[in-house]
Amino acid sequence: MSDRLCTVLLYSDDPQVRDRMRLAVGTRPAPGLRIEFVDASTYAECVRLVDDYEIDLMLLDGEASPGGGIGIARQIKDDRDDAPPTCVVIARAADRWLAAYAEVDATLVHPLDPVTTGNTVAELLRTHAPA
């Protein structure tokens, strides 16, 4: 059986945060899954990438400025019937209520734990796999 190649959009205004996300996910978060990444540093780039690529998962920085990942997740889900699943990285676990209101599929907390991050990404990709 060949591995499924999945495209993960990484969003943060901070390139170091995107690098930490990429390292925490890795290119093989679980058996049978391979990851390629596309990066966005603005809301406009996120929208363009979602329009131009088959994005399997959006991993968004909830602390990004001026557009936070929670707001971007909500906007893309409101604008598209086929929005990819979203995982937002937040600074405080107490912000999970806001992420739930934005209808994100999962949250992670800074600093990212590679095991938890990889497992969360793999679960979202498997749960939302195309038929």
From TrEMBL:
Q: Which residues carry this modification: 4-aspartylphosphate?
A: D61
Q: Which residues form the Response regulatory domain?
A: 7-125
Which keywords belong to this entry?
Phosphoprotein
Cite the PROSITE patterns for this sequence: RESPONSE_REGULATORY
Q: For this chain's UniProt record, which GO biological process terms are given?
A: phosphorelay signal transduction system
Q: Which SUPFAM superfamilies does the entry mention?
A: CheY-like (SSF52172)
Record's protein name:
Response regulatory domain-containing protein
List the InterPro entries hit by this protein, alphabetically.
CheY-like_superfamily (IPR011006), Sig_transdc_resp-reg_receiver (IPR001789)
Top-rank lineage group of the source organism:
Bacteria
UniProt keyword annotation of Phosphoprotein present: yes
